Automatic annotation (TrEMBL):
GO terms for molecular function: carbonate dehydratase activity; zinc ion binding. SUPFAM superfamilies: Carbonic anhydrase (SSF51069). It is an enzyme of class 4 (lyase). This is carbonic anhydrase. Residues 1-16 form the signal peptide. Residues 24-285 form the Alpha-carbonic anhydrase domain. InterPro entries: CA_dom, CA_dom_sf, Carbonic_anhydrase_a-class. GO terms for cellular component: plasma membrane. It comes from the Eukaryota. PROSITE patterns: ALPHA_CA_2. It comes from Cyprinus carpio (Common carp).
């Protein structure tokens, strides 16, 4: 009887170890796929999950939201950046001196990565959607709160620990040289686990021109363990890459390792939108008003005001009287 009990106990012990191991090996559509994430990673079933659909008619305009200001993005130094295929995305490390102003705390850059779809000519691949519409891809630039937390490992599990800039990407005709600084090297990291050193470049080239119009809300990491620690900034203006560049993202990379017999394409690495659950999405502008245009001229900028802006200024003036 003792031998039988020991055998049964050993069997269940092994199954538990197997489950623990599997929990770390999540996927988007296969074993431990999106619908099962919460079973293995409890935070993925939380009430403040990301990504979300931004319904612009339900956003709350906040005039206190100032333009996002990247700091040190153009001071990339002499050391190369590291590009890495982690099996879920292509990720690039960023130097610690890069940061972003215009947020409630000081956040230092850690890394950036991409999300995309699989079908050429279909605008599906972004994680966030605006008024139900997705784009071909989405870039995330991840920062952690250096005012409160000692490092990224601590910050990512805590409230207000992370700040992520989200850039929605569309496909167009012209090659985007900034994104080419990353995409031109994807062939060197085709398989999971591969890394390559690439020439450092100005990260500002990955951003939209207009950094004053964005949506902001509190959410989570969009991949397991889905910690609800992220202050999200989603830029309203899209960035364009060429159709050939998008095709390269969709077709060059594998989520499997080189030694595996059957390579698996790294595609559709985006999470579906999550319930808002009564969260407030702030807007730095009034959606529907004619957009301000920012024209880059050296280090300065020229801003063109719409009619609504003049009305707002007149209203403030009258109230002051």
């Amino acid at each position: 009887m003792d031998l039988v009990w020991i055998t049964v106990a050993f069997f269940f012990f092994c199954k538990c170890l197997e489950c623990l191991g599997t929990a770390k090996e999540w996927t988007y559509a296969g074993a431990v796929g999106q619908t099962e994430w919460a079973e293995f990673f409890p935070d993925c079933g939380g009430s403040s999950q990301s990504p979300i659909n931004v319904d612009t008619s339900q956003t709350l305009y906040d005039p206190m939201l100032i333009p996002v200001q990247p700091l040190g993005y153009n001071h990339y130094g002499n050391r190369p950046f590291t590009l890495y295929n982690n099996g879920h995305t292509v990720q690039m490390t960023l130097p610690h001196w890069m940061s972003v102003a215009g947020l409630p705390w000081h956040y230092s850059a850690v890394q950036l990565h991409l999300h995309w779809g699989s079908e050429v000519g279909v605008a599906t691949g972004s994680e966030h959607t605006i008024n139900g519409h997705s784009t071909a891809a989405e870039l995330h630039i991840v920062h952690y709160n250096t005012e409160i937390y000692a490092n990224m490992s601590e910050a990512k599990t805590q409230e207000n620990g992370l700040a992520v800039l989200a850039i929605l990407i569309e496909a167009g005709e012209e090659i985007n040289q900034g994104y080419g600084s990353i995409l031109n090297y994807l062939g060197h990291i085709r398989y999971a686990g591969q890394k390559v050193a690439i020439p450092a470049f100005d990260i500002n080239l990955l951003l939209p021109d207009n950094l004053s119009q964005y949506f902001r809300y509190n959410g989570s990491l969009t991949t397991p363990p889905c910690h609800q620690s992220v202050l999200w900034t989603i830029f309203n203006e899209r960035v364009k890459i060429s159709h050939s560049q998008l095709m390269k993202i969709q077709t060059v990379l594998y989520s499997s390792k080189e030694e595996e017999a059957e390579p698996m394409a790294l595609q559709d690495n985006y999470r579906t939108t999550q319930p808002l659950n009564h969260r407030t999405v702030l807007s730095s502008f009034i959606p529907g008003r004619r957009e301000r245009k920012r024209i880059k001229e050296g280090r300065g900028e020229i801003t063109e005001l719409g009619v609504g802006d003049y009305v707002a200024v007149l209203f403030v003036y009258m109230m002051a009287d």
